[in-house]
Amino acid sequence: MTTKIVILGGASGDVGRDLTRILLKEKKLIDHITVTARHLNVACDFVTTLDDQRVTAMQIDVTDNTQLLNGLNNHDLVVNTIGPFSRYAIPIVKAAIHSGVNYIDICDDIEPTFQALRLDKQAKKAGVFMIIGMGWFPGMSNLNAKELTKQMEDVTEIDTAWVAGRKAPEEKPSSGIGGTEHFFRSLTGKIVTFRNGQQEKIPAFQKELQIPFPQPLGTCSCYLMEHPEPVIFPLTIPGIQNASTYFSLYPINRNKLVRLFARMIDMKLLSVSQVTKINAVLGKTNDKKQLPILTGSYISCCGSRNGQKGQLRYSAVNTKTTVAEATSQPLACAILHLATHKIEPGVYLPENILNIEDIIKLGRYYELPFAQDTIDLLCWNDKVISP
Questions:
Q1: pTM across the whole model
Q2: Across the strands, what pairs with 203?
Q3: At the fourth CATH level, which superfamily is domain 140-322+373-381?
């Protein structure tokens, strides 16, 4: 089947641009791609760099519902890469349902994830499928956690962690304001996590965990943050009592500035919006290209395996993928998988509809670094690493 795709933010965002380039590698399944930006000249400028007749530019301001609905028409799939998802995800999800267009995104906020899941009946009635949060974290984190649980008799606790080096591969990456706003909101005030079998609000950035990664990263200090995984894992994995997500920036000295900003926000000396703008200015004055390319992933499951209590840990380091690429590459593989498989209408989390084996297989077929250049380690230990 041929596929007509509209990528919201496909011309203006780091993930969207990289996703477009990957999908264009597939000559048979991808019939046409529309890439969007708020300003038409931005979309047109990006299209001229691709030299592919299957791509067209379109101006869409996603806050203009009429413009958004018109832009979704005559497409089979809408890919939403525009953050912060707490602000933009649900209006776009509803527009996709109204237009009868299938949907996939990289949503990394809790509330819109649950709001989207509650639209399952509407999606089924419209005859469309919707996959929420198919990127790196969440996305690959969900699929890896699901794979680990298959190797255990029971699971009571899941911890995930990510480590981020360079943001994007391009010399001039996007401002990333949406991602920055989301990041600082997830590190300040009280955050939602999962404790003793229920959602609980606890102070952000307060707990530090020493997590072992393969070299060249090694053991890394990671910090508690708000993310969807801790509260969506219990929806698909029975028996979980505790779940947390941690993060670290790389090199690790970058965390000092983040902690300073987070404290200033908590003390009401600065707002999230102000810190986001300051970070954008700092990004223009610093050479982001000099940051090392490195991404780290960690998923651990506590429970029983072969009758023994302990912890199954998966950790991985990749020195060939930036944060944007670690997100766009598995997203592209999910889209290519969907192009050859019939999906029943409804709203899904990635682990409900996709398997890690299929995503990795496609990644290797298209020679994507996230699938073929990862240094990973799987180990079982009766000594538990836990907060």
A1: 0.95
A2: 190
A3: Dihydrodipicolinate Reductase; domain 2 (3.30.360.10)
